[in-house]
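pasting for ref
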Amino acid sequence: MSKFTYNYNYVYLITDLINDMFYIGAKSCNEHPSENLGIKYFSSSQNKNFIQDQKNNPENYKYEILSIHENRLNANKEEARLHELYDVRNNKKFYNKINAANSNIGFNTSNLVVAVNENTNKIEYVSKEEFYNSPHLHGNAKGYIPVKDEFGNTKHIKKDDPDYISGKYIRTSSNRVIVLDENNNPKSVLKSDPDYISGKYKSHFKGLVSVYDKNGNKLRVSINDPEYINGNLTPIVKGYILCKDLNGNNLYIHKNDERFKTGELVGINKNKICITNGSKNKMIEKTDIIPENWYRGRCKVNK
């Protein structure tokens, strides 16, 4: 047992908004996690570039507190469950290089498996012997599958979910694509579908482009949007970031641009943090006091 006692034990998710990659970890601290993650702590990753880039370009990262636990053991269990769920060690979308469940650091699960107890409907770590001999225990992912919705968001749902059965959601590993039918309704079809190949069905995202607005917010708009045509919206290209010069002028440059490395250009949201009240997000200066009922982080906003 650790000789230190902390006020908070939490599991977190870091999203690299530029490279569309993720990191899941667990951390203990005395201040509230929202005052720790992305401010004092930037993950336990061995990737030094990943750590340093967060410090240099905080506007390019999103920080989320996934759960808070009464002790570090429970936080480690949840971290291990998520690592196993997404197989972060082998998943190229994650910076993690090891699954916590296979690590000897902090919490050893080498002879344990993640299971759902049908009697309590809770996730537990149990011995392999108990798992195979107990009828009320089943695999954590039993009956669930990873899918993408019509907006490209990934989630886990039950196999008998009506949206999956109807084709609205498609398996992430399937050779399918979300399209708009002749009535502009989203549906999933095989990439080999003759109607998709012929162009009768168009991609759900055809005619749309991902952009930054002048405040650095990410949007998806029509290629015919007047703001996009007039150059008021900047297309998002992997490896490129929105910056500002010493005069406050916005520039869209590659992240390896020497002017960015020397500090001549800085991220548009440098020295700012994102806060949310659970339904709205906004950027404020790091030195500003966070208003009551707001906290550091982001929430998903339905457009």
